[in-house]
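Fold it.
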Amino acid sequence: YKKLLKELDNFKNQLAESNKESDYKNFLLEELQNVNLDDLDLEELQNQVKKQENAEAITDNLSQIFAKLDAEEIGVLDSMTEIKGKLGKVADLSHEFTLLNQRLQENFIEFKDIIFELQDAAEKMETSPEMLLALNQTLNTVNALLLKHGVHSIPELIEIRDQLLNEQSGFADLENLITELEKKKIDSEIRLAKMAADLSANRKKHIPDFTNKIESLLKQLGLEKAKIEAELKDSLNYNSFGKESIQILFQANSGFPLKPIQSAISGGERSRVMLSIKKLMAENAELPTLILDEIDTGVSGKVAEEMGNVMKEMAENMQLIVITHLAQVAAKGNNNYKVVKEDVSGKTQSNIIPLNHDEKLQEIAQLLSGSKITDAAISQAQELMK
């Protein structure tokens, strides 16, 4: 559901940005579509413009060429024909001139072809101010488009035009995608609503059992008057708890109102409540291993003894690793280890050392009496270990 919301938000932002740019992009597309780019060759267009601009000069020069070719008595064609005939006679008289005669014959044929093509081009030559105006308009439009889009060729303009066309298509696709995602969002909300309702119903069903078991454990741990409640409040939006917020209310002493646990609990009470909740969770979550790091902070004496008993019970059904400074708790461990820090080559290194029966006895006695271990501490440690 969150993924859908994120996707929807992303696509809606894209659509909003597309809408902002849509008018301008449509204008650019129309400009490019108004010029028939697919049938245009820029070099040919430039040549056509140049040809029309110089049509008069071209026609005049061609006329002079044809006049020279056809002039009476001194016309180039007649002269060339006469030269060709005389060289043919020379070649008949001496084979030394045969190759030169062949070359002249071939070039004369090529020369005549050039003349015929020039005549054909001259006949087709059109001089039209309207045509020149149209060609110039097309060339100016193309040059303006090249400058606007920062490119140098018509194929690049075609690529930009096609890209704008694809974006128009993508715009419609984006709207369709948003519609589909909105439908999926509604389907998800329907499923979520049912799941959240089932979850809430299960919570309400089990809250009495939860509070009774926690309060029973708290009594065992010396909080005989403690009360705990789980308060459920409907939430406007879905969250990781469903569609409600959960508040644990607590009060350690009778005669006082229940308050949110984070503002109504002391250090020693916090340790006992935490242990009670951890024990209840462990019984229901089938955890293979649980680590309690100084969960017994702030307690001592009989309470510490009872916390040790609770941990012992927990250890019957799972692996429980406990970090503690309390002799009453440490004494109940099936296996004991000591964490030792030492300086190795200028760096602090932590080691974990397994303890045998006698080493365990010494460590527990030290927890009881401090650095100097007394006979009384040894005796008390032995009692605790029993």
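The radius of gyration is 51 Å.
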